[in-house]
Each structure stands twice: as structure tokens, then as C-alpha cells.
Specification:
This protein has 74 residues and is mainly beta. It has a domain of 41 residues. It contains no helices and five strands. β4 and β5 form a beta hairpin.
């Protein structure tokens, strides 16, 4: 894995639980092969048994590698 050293324009968008139930029918999860020291925010756990994996797409082959996974709720 590549280590994150200095990226000035780096951001992560993730859902925030504010006590309200959130029901989505589709998830697009981007997996980035990158270590971020002292990371404190992660994608919420989900049960793969509730989802059907539709496909995987390579977004970036160069380092750091990025892969998109698409899931639909069963």
C-alpha cells in the first residue's frame, strides 16, 4: 500500500448518522489502496448478505490503485 504523505486537495465524503434511519438501495464503494496515518473516519460496516454485488470497475491502475464496487440492496 502507498502511504499518504502530502495531498493538499484530499477529501472524503461519507454518510453521517444523525439518529435518523437511512435506507439506501445502491452503494458505490471506492476502494483506494492507500494508508492514511492516524485515520479516524471509516465507511460504516454493512452486511454483504443484504446486498448483491453488481460489478467492479478499475478507476485507476497507477499507484494508488482505485477500484469501484457497486452493490444493490436485495
Amino acid at each position: 500500500m502507498t502511504e499518504l504523505k502530502d495531498i493538499s486537495n484530499f477529501s472524503i465524503v461519507a454518510p453521517i448518522d444523525q439518529g435518523k434511519p437511512v435506507l439506501n438501495y445502491r452503494q458505490l464503494i471506492t476502494e483506494v489502496d492507500l494508508d492514511v496515518p492516524d485515520a479516524d473516519t471509516f465507511f460504516p460496516d454493512f452486511d454483504p448478505a443484504d446486498w448483491r454485488h453488481i460489478g467492479t470497475s478499475d478507476l485507476r491502475a497507477a499507484d494508488p490503485r482505485c477500484v469501484l464496487h457497486e452493490y444493490l440492496r436485495i
